[in-house]
Amino acid sequence: MTDCGHLETRVKKRERVGHLTNTTTSLILFVFVLSLNAQCQGNDMTRLRKHLFDDQRVDRHNRPVQNHTDTVVVELLFDLAHIHSLDEWTGTLTVNGFMRLIWEDQSFRWEPKEYGDVDHIIVPQSTIWQPDVTLYNSAQAQEMDHYGNSMLYLTNDGMVHWFPPVTFRATCPIDHKLFPFDEHSCSIVLGSWTYDTAAVDLRLSEDHNDTQVGLLEHFSENPQWELLRIEGNTREINHECCTDNYRVVEYRLNLRRRSPFYKFLLVVPSVLTTCLTLALFWLPPNAGEKITIGGIALVIQVSLLFFLGWCIPPGGMSVPAIVLFCGNSLVMTGLSLIISVVVINLSRSRNYTPAPASLKMILGGRIRKILCLELHPYQVFRELPLNSTKSL
What is the mean pLDDT of residues 246-264? Predict the structure, then answer.
């Protein structure tokens, strides 16, 4: 019985060792196949790169056409990501986003079956030709290269896809007429700086409808400016130096200022000072409080004008309506103070002169009640009958 037990134990150990050996062998074979596949794929990629970027086949300085009269069609789409700032003093709009440029390069075509089913390849920017799409209304003329060193995506059918991140600084006309409820329309004009329409035909991508507000994929809101609408279109421009036409893609952004802060800081004090100015005429003629209230309103309006001068650039296209309102209110408050001083001086003077009969006739009766007019005590005394005067 003891020999039989030892024999069974040995058999089980051999079975376990054999199972472990088979598992190890399978794992080694699996890793070997993966490495061999990766090596073959790497060899396929290397062969493909050598085939595509042979110096005798590709010239990255020339347009990718067989005949120099052919046109390279470039589809363009600007994907707005963020409105960085709108500098109202310099009229500069700074935005961040992504460009989508797609064109065909006939030099980069291959059969995927010949290269291990490789149907695309990623290459550096410096290896192939790219269209020189430039921001026409750039606020800084020396910024011609907006795209940096970004990679390009090539497919086996010869299509080149380029999605570089960009930062544009464009000029934008500023009109503060309705400040702080103003809206501004800024443009981003993109086009080829060197090639005319016959050489490079710049077209708006078919996916440009995705640029509508609410459908922007990567857009983040700006705390000061609200994006109302963004739309793109193409047009042709002519330069005075040349007879050729150049096609550009123009994106127009409609922005509106977020004004809750200015409502409480500017609108409310402006309305309050206007009410204080009207209150000067509601007080009795000899009330000395008129000077105090008028002085307070005058100080508030001067402070508002200084604040507006700090917020709004002085060289705008038009004078803001709120500046005109505060300026006119300041003039009216000053005149009301002068009138109040004269009225108080007259009301406290002892030289009383009866009103002319014609003026009494005009301001008498119902009109006097409507205007809340009353006779001065001395005038009442002068107009009392003789018997009433003797009784006094």
Answer: 89
Give the SS3 label for residue 125.
helix
Identify the pLDDT of residue 144.
Answer: 61
Among 168, 164, 166, CA closest to 152:
164
Cα angle 333, 324, 267 (rounded to 5 degrees) comes to 80
Q: What are phi and psi of 297, to 5 degrees?
A: -60, -35
- 175 contacts 229 by C-beta, under 8 angstroms: no
Reduced to 3 states (helix: H, G, I; strand: E, B; else coil), residue 185 is strand
DSSP state of 7: H
What pTM did the predictor assign?
Answer: 0.72
Mean pLDDT on 198-224: 74
Mean pLDDT across the chain, nearest whole number?
78
Residues linked to residue 95 through DSSP beta bridges, in sequence order: 83, 168
For 118, 220, 295, 296, 324, the CA distances from 302, given in Å and listed in that order, are 73, 38, 11, 10, 13
Burial of 339 (0-12, 13-18, 19+ CB in 10 A): middle
Under 8 Å between Cβ of 228 and 91: no
Radius of gyration in angstroms for the set of CA atoms belonging to the chain, rounded to a whole number: 42
**pLDDT above 60 for 381:** no
Report pLDDT for 110.
86
Nearest to 257 by CA among 348, 182, 311, 351: 182
| Mean pLDDT value across residues 381-385 | 48
